[in-house]
Amino acid sequence: MTEDPATPGSGRSGHGGPGEAHGGAPPLTPYAGLGLTALSAVLFFGGGAALADSPAVWSLALLPPLAFLLPALLFARLAGAGRRVFPAATIGVRGASGAAAALLGASLLALALAGVAARWAGPDAGEEGLWRWVMGFGPLGRVCLLAVLPGLCEEFFFRGALLACLRSWSPVPACLASGLLFAVFHGSPLRLLPVAVLGVALAAVVWLSRNVWVAVAGHVFHNLLVLAALQHYGAAAEPGAAALALWGLGGALLLAGGLWMLRGEGGGTRGRDVQREGE
Fold this sequence. Notes:
Layout: H1 30-50, H2 56-79, H3 82-85, H4 93-121, H5 125-135, H6 139-165, H7 171-185, H8 192-209, H9 212-233, H10 241-277
Helix pairs in contact: 1-2, 1-6, 2-6, 4-8, 4-9, 4-10, 6-7, 6-9, 7-8, 8-9, 8-10
């Protein structure tokens, strides 16, 4: 995995250190990230309230770009740090394999935790309404509005702009913060843990790979798995306990192994970068 010269940690950015701003540009600091998140919350929840009486398709089509993508793009533009906010480092075969394993594992683990939470909470009348609402869209509409668009917009914000602002922290608190804030925006106490697990895993993959597009692909893939599960199981049926246990155990193993592979390749890359900087 070769790191983009302008990504965080390379020491070669033309805009100074990871948290350094030039001119009057906003710095890439945790305070800036939390402020940006507060702005996004106002746009997301305020926009949702404003569109409450409109057809659902308007909320699905407008809120992700308005609340996540646009603030992230504007922030990167103002900070003059597009390649640090949206890193796109080249990933080798080992890194790509590790990222794929970690993302598949995170998705399976999140689905298993969501299934356990649903079984623990018991029947929910809202589940049937959600299923009918999702199935009301055609296949193309479901893929575009419920998988691709949120995957792109949310990753550019939570694993792009926000995570870039948290690079001055150590990896664990930075990834936890990105994942937990991601979960809070989904507004479901029942699914807080599975969404947080997915968000933390996505942040860890971006942290190690220095490539936000990997997280976009993983997020879209997870959304497609959720849609496939809704299509297969419907509103009332749920995976059995054995299936949930298999998903959870297999997902955890894949996630741990994938991150180990990514960390091994990333560690070597960082070492080569430090060596080049000292030459």
